[in-house]
Amino acid sequence: MSELRPILIVEDSDEDFEAMMWAWKKGQLRAPVVRSRDGEDALDRVFRRGAYLHSDPSGAPALIMLDLNLPRMHGRAVLAAIKHDADHKTTPVVILTTSANPQDVEVCYREGANSYIVKPGQMSRLLEILRQIEGYWMDVVRLPEPGGMHAG
Q1: 3-state DSSP call for residue 143?
Q2: How far is the C-alpha of 40 from the C-alpha of 102, rounded, in Å?
Q3: pLDDT at residue 145 above 90?
Q4: Less packed terminus of the chain by CB within 10 Å, N or C?
Q5: Which residues on adjacent β-strands are paired with residue 7?
């Protein structure tokens, strides 16, 4: 794939986001990253509304990395909104959170999460996880085009 679509990281913690960006750069990962700091902004970006109303549909995220504990709207509600929408339910969503609560894991998979990863405490492990995420989702699998079957 010559032109990689962005990965949307939904993360309210500046510290966690900066750690992820450090690992992203250190790992020389290629996919562009965009960030939403809360669930409502993430949904506005995905559904191209509000500040993103006139954004280019070809720039739709190829993958969403979603924290659960977010301001304004919990990550589980964001996941449900994406996965219950006919045009976006095929967008892969990887939960990347501090919660190891089995109930969170269960609910997220029931709502359509494609993966559930507990944030590691070590930077070296975070680097390895991000390499694996990008390698798998951006190089190994074939993702649907933006708009899916409902386009046109």
Answers
A1: coil
A2: 25
A3: no
A4: C
A5: 33, 63
Mean pLDDT score, 30-58: 92
Mean residue pLDDT of the chain comes to: 91
Distance between CA atoms of 129 and 134, rounded to whole angstroms?
9
d(CA 62, CA 145) in angstroms, rounded, equals: 8
Please give the structure tokens belonging to residue 128.
């390895």
Q: Which helix (H) or strand (E) holds 95?
A: strand 93-97
Q: Which residue in this structure is represented by tokens 């902004």?
A: 41
Query: Which domains are seen in the chain, by residue range?
Result: 14-140 (3.40.50.2300)
Q: Confidence band (pLDDT; 50, 70, 90) for 133?
A: very high
CA distance 120 to 78: 22
Angle between helix 14-26 and 123-134 (nearest 10): 70
Give pTM, 2 decimals: 0.91
Residue 64 contacts by C-beta under 8 Å, 6 or more apart in sequence?
7, 8, 10, 42, 46, 82, 91, 92, 93, 94
